[in-house]
Design brief:
Elements: H1 5-10, E1 38-42, E2 47-52, E3 58-63, E4 73-75, E5 78-82, E6 87-92, E7 98-103, E8 113-115, E9 118-122, E10 130-137, E11 143-150, E12 158-160, E13 163-167, E14 171-176, E15 182-187, E16 197-199, E17 202-206, E18 211-216, E19 222-227, E20 237-239, E21 242-246, E22 251-256, E23 262-267, E24 277-279, E25 282-286, E26 291-296, E27 302-307, E28 317-318, E29 322-326, E30 331-336, E31 342-347, E32 357-359, E33 365-366
Antiparallel strand pairs: 1-2, 1-32, 2-3, 4-5, 5-6, 6-7, 8-9, 9-10, 10-11, 12-13, 13-14, 14-15, 16-17, 17-18, 18-19, 20-21, 21-22, 22-23, 24-25, 25-26, 26-27, 28-29, 29-30, 30-31, 32-33
Length: 375
């Protein structure tokens, strides 16, 4: 099943890097406000929403001039998010007031990544069929560098050990995080919408050529590949020696992260564009069959499922007690992680492709998936 470039942009937020369901504690260089229980999510109604994470009550919304399929990231008291209006915005977490914006010369549906004092954002379509990745100052939004690649991609960048890893039109790039110069590239047989994870010196990424690849993070040399029955727009999540990833063939896979050998597969009734999140031995993933699933991480046995009224392409975000996800019907909801029982839902004015970011009152942050960012 092939997707057009236009359709790819709609589910880009679902491919947000299988990034972090980890706990990111405050640092001196990255202070986060305390006393706020909030979840931040974008919508096709051109808004970024801040909701009370326990009740779903709206705290504020920030309006852009285009759809917000980009998944927000949180840094130094701001939510940072891209829009199809060709801008990236930094918004105050408490008030929703704009702190800065930067014009990108392309619509953005991939997710920004913050490392140190830099925001990395990009891969989108320019008028001359190229993609760009930008490095911006996180405090001011001033440009530090840009990298231009042929073709269109919607992969979100991952930054580990001074390198930026991001998918391209038919390849994966590794760039110097300070300079933006290319260190290596690895060619695949089709586009890389998946966002890479980096764990223990290995880069994991999916491709629309139906494969998942494991590459040496320093050299780009292939260690192994695992073939599925469909395009892999989902981003890999690595936890406990296993890699979890979804495919257009309607399956969630678990494979050995060292060898690529299949451990188990779990079949849904629709393509799995969502990226899995793993918490306390459970894999959380959504499907185009209108459901979100909780699956045993070791066996692949279903623990529970919960329904929505339309496709779910966003990636779940999981805290100790709740899992959050939105769907094409515009509903964003929270469910109990143990039972799947719905705790609350919030209706936006457009489809939700964005994956959420959660800030707890103790200043811990949660994003979707597990990535080498925290290791």
């Amino acid at each position: 099943m092939k997707k057009s470039i236009a359709n790819r942009s709609f589910f880009a937020a679902a491919t947000f890097a299988a990034f972090q369901i980890f706990t990111h504690c405050s640092k001196k260089e990255d202070p986060m406000p305390k006393g706020i229980d909030a979840v931040f999510v974008g919508s096709s109604d051109n808004k970024l929403y801040a909701l009370n994470s326990k009740t779903g009550a709206k705290l504020w919304d920030f309006a852009t001039k285009g759809t917000v399929h980009s998944s927000p990231t949180l840094a130094i008291g701001m939510a940072i998010v891209g829009s199809s209006d060709q801008n990236i915005y930094a918004v105050d977490l408490k008030t929703g007031a704009k702190v800065w914006e930067f014009a990108l010369d392309m619509g953005i549906s991939s997710a920004p990544t913050v490392s140190g004092n830099t925001v990395y954002v990009g891969m989108g379509g320019t008028s001359n069929f190229t993609s760009k990745l930008y490095a911006l100052d996180v405090v001011t939004g001033a440009k530090q560098w840009e990298f231009v690649a042929d073709g269109i991609s919607i992969s979100s960048p991952t930054v580990v050990n001074g390198k930026v890893y991001v998918g391209g039109f038919n390849n994966l790039y590794a760039l110097d995080a300070k300079k933006g110069t290319k260190l290596w590239e690895f060619g695949t047989g089709a586009g890389v919408d998946s966002s890479p994870s980096v764990v223990d010196g290995v880069v994991y990424v999916g491709s629309n050529d139906y494969n998942v690849y494991a590459l040496d993070a320093e050299t780009g040399a292939k260690k192994w590949n695992f073939s599925t029955g469909g395009e892999v727009s989902s981003s890999p999540t690595v936890s406990g020696g296993s890699l979890y990833i979804g495919s257009f063939d309607r399956k969630l896979y678990a494979v050995n992260s060292q060898t690529g050998a299949k451990l188990w597969e779990f079949r849904t009734d629709g393509p799995v564009l969502s990226s899995p999140s793993v918490s306390n031995g459970v894999v959380f993933v959504a499907s185009n069959d209108h459901k979100m699933y909780a699956v045993d991480a070791k066996t692949g046995a279903k623990k529970w499922e919960t329904w929505s009224t339309n496709r779910i392409q966003a990636s779940p975000v999981v805290t100790d007690s709740l899992a959050y996800v939105g769907g094409i019907d515009g509903r964003f909801f929270a469910v109990d992680v143990q039972s799947g029982a719905k705790k609350w839902e919030f209706q936006t004015g457009g489809a939700v492709y964005s994956s959420a970011a959660v800030l707890s009152s103790s200043s811990k942050t949660y994003f979707s998936g597990v990535s080498g960012l925290q290791q």
